[in-house]
């Protein structure tokens, strides 16, 4: 199980992620080498950091379809797979 998982996580090897987000490649590799259980902790941490942080702000209300669209964009931005370019308003 571990070899296939590590192979799929190779794009994350040595990658700098936002503070508080566990690098999945490092997590699996280190825990596997130590003989530890490889659990869902990084996924749950990512869910809290990426998804809940955005959707549970004060006054937020979401229907399922719009939340799904927003969360796809948020996940891409947080993973570094999509660059957000912010245009400044003219002075």
Number of strand elements: 0
Helix count, per DSSP? 4
Major β-sheet, in short? Answer: none
What is the global morphology? elongated
Weakly predicted, low-confidence segments = none
Helix content percent band: 40-55%
| Helix/strand order | HHHH
Q: Separation of termini?
A: 56 Å
**Mean pLDDT over the residues:** 78
Number of structural units classed as domains: 1
**Rounded radius of gyration (Å):** 16 Å
* SS strand fraction: under 5%
How does the helix and strand content classify structurally? Answer: mainly alpha
Task: Give a description of the structure.
This protein is mostly helical. The protein has one domain. The chain contains 4 helices and no strands. The longest helix has 16 residues, at 64-79. The termini are far apart. The mean pLDDT is 78.
Please render the helix and strand layout as text.
Layout (H helix, E strand, L loop, with lengths): L1 H8 L14 H11 L6 H15 L8 H16 L12
